[in-house]
């Protein structure tokens, strides 16, 4: 029964990820973000659509999607399946693995929901901020490295799409390395999260890849 929480986590993550924060924030300023720039609902396009006043709450809201999903599934997991006072080693491993998988799927599907929101006709943002923030709460040391990679690439290129790809690629690479080199039993749920995040981001960035090839990708101007 522990493993049913993985499905619950995926559902919670997708539902929270689907909340169209950028759309709602920009509507407060009389702008439909879907008609501006890339048409996405993330922080970069919110900046284009209504300025910094819309971008900041959009980024915060998008960042919280995976964070809240992981917090919620963790609470539900412990509520319905309290950790026994005594467990064998195998039981303890199974318990922690089930918890980590539920958390990983909650976070991964928050990214999926953000990119393909059922409230927006299965459209949304690109997943960069949601993925980076989710990774930070899922496994802080890896999250810190992912943020650093994303920020440095954004600073160098001024392209949100490249920073977003860096978030997905570094998340996948680091978690896969940890699972392969350190302890597969402990880290394979995180590797699953990395796969979900990377695949989602790659699919979301298909239009951007074409623009990069043509030299037409948008550059974010800070001033």
Q: Measure the end-to-end span.
A: 53 Å
Count up the helices: 10
Radius of gyration: 18 Å
**Share in β-strands:** under 5%
Mean pLDDT: 93
Shape: globular
Detail the poorly predicted runs. none
Any chance you could write out the topology, listing elements then pairs?
Layout (H helix, E strand, L loop, with lengths): L3 H14 L3 H8 L14 H8 L1 H29 L8 H27 L12 H11 L1 H18 L2 H23 L1 H21 L1 H9 L9
Structure, described:
This protein is mostly helical. It has one domain. It is built from ten helices and no strands.
Short description:
With 223 residues, the protein is mostly helical.
Looking at this protein, list some descriptive labels:
223 residues; mainly alpha; 10 helices
